[in-house]
Design a protein that fits this description.
Structural class: alpha+beta
Number of helices: 1
Oligomer: single chain
Distance between the termini: 45 Å
Helix content: 40-55%
Largest sheet: 2 strands, antiparallel
Pfam family, one: DUF6494
Strand order of the largest sheet: 1-2
Number of domains: 1
Radius of gyration: 16 Å
Length: 67
Amino acid sequence: MSDEFNMTMRKFLKQVGVTSQQAIEEAMRDAGLDTTKGRSFSAKVVLTVDDLDLVHVVEGEIAGRTE
């Protein structure tokens, strides 16, 4: 793959990561929730690239402090 392709893909994925974290943090604040309370949330991201007929799903858990 070309350097330009790799650079633009990494830039896109970084933007996805940063903006997703911001959206989750904002939703937590709006819900009045504290991340230190030990509560966890199931999360799912669906990445689609229409021109490649790609649907990629990532599922996981986001956990607050458990101490």
